[in-house]
Amino acid sequence: MRITRTVAGRSRRTAVIATTGLTAAALLLTGCSDSGSESDGADADGNITLTVADFGQFGYKEAGLFEKYHELHPNITVKENVTADEKVYYPKFLQQLNTGSGLADVQGIEVGRAKELVDTKADAFVDLAKVIDPDQWVNWKALQATTDQGKVIGAGTDIGPMSICYRRDLFEQAGLPTDREEVAAKYAGGWEDYLKLGEEYAKKAPKGTYFMDSASAMYNGVVSSDEEQYYAKDGKPIYKESAGVKAGWKLATEAVDKKLTQGLAQFSPPWQAALRKGSVATVACPAWMAAQISTYAGDAFKGKWDIAKTPGDTAANWGGSFLSVPAKGKHVKEAGELVKWLTAPEQQAAVFKAVGVFPSNKGAYELPDVKSAKLPYFNNAPIGEIYAEEAQVIPAAVLGPKDGIIKDTISTQINNMEQRGTDPDKAWNDATEAIDKVIG
Fold first, then answer.
1. pLDDT digits over 207-223, tens only?
2. pTM for the whole thing?
3. Contact in structure between 383 and 375 (CB atoms under 8 Å)
4. Among candidates 287, 284, 254, 255, which has minimal Cα distance to 370?
5. Which of 72, 177, 217, 376 has the highest CB neighbour count under 10 A?
6. What are phi and psi of 418, to 5 degrees?
């Protein structure tokens, strides 16, 4: 993501990653980039400008990839147009697809929008299966942007394999183990064990601290490990009957009832302030979350955070994006070649090194900048190993057109239980009523 990516209740920032003998400090920027408009036509010398429209922070500018591409292709200049908030970006993108005008040569797609575009707008995109080899990606990622007929509308950029980020010093003060392997063993049975660990923490918790930041974050972690989440394979919404949703909601209400959560909406100013103050002991942590924590917690807590594997033996993914080529772009062939290059293993590894977003191209996992990557801020946690192992066993989740709206709405009601004391039954009814109005 860019510097700040926000969609379906999430946002991300950059981190510092140590690789084999190297340390890369990612740039802490605001969501902005070079300005640009639609691609210009080739000039008399055959020079062209390709535009890339995306949201938040994809990391290409930070990794110097656009400049490098120009060096490799002197006749091509790449300009990036960034919208800080994906919720602002997507409606405009849909309008452009509908009218066939105003489109960039390359457009970013958030995973929460992929199913809707696959089902309703596939004809508006170039089939990237003719440009890239989808088998290079982790299988479940490639499937997210593939139609039933095998057309691929997006090449995978980053993914969000899950883990638990935790404060070693707070665990020690509460009499809990601090070694990441020992921590993972405490909740090896799954998210239920994670709550039991929270109860242990609460017995001796340092004053003014909480076991977790947000019950809704834990909820998302639970649901993300299921193959069927909000929709069935036949396209029917099943969020009311989904085993994952039921389990996640039950655990969230239990966390609220036992006062294990500080009740903070993630990425909000109070959440950022809590990280700076040091009042949160654990955070459900997709790969991109570590950068958020290091940014807002600041230098005072460097080395006090660590990362352990996700609870239980089920892998989970939270987040990720794609690059697409609109069929009505001005430079379709050149745009496809750019997408192929940007999503190749070497470039995905470079982006990971620069801004900490984890690659979806399996070839990147064997490159030193990924395989040997460690996070100094998180006690040198071997994130290359942790996330690569998880990424390759994540189930191919069924996506639906309104996944993001459903998840956002349920998360909001969990926050209401935490912050306003809303009764769980009322919160669930409010969530379902709001969702049904949207999805029909």
1. 999 999 999 999 999 99
2. 0.83
3. yes
4. 287
5. 217
6. -70, -45
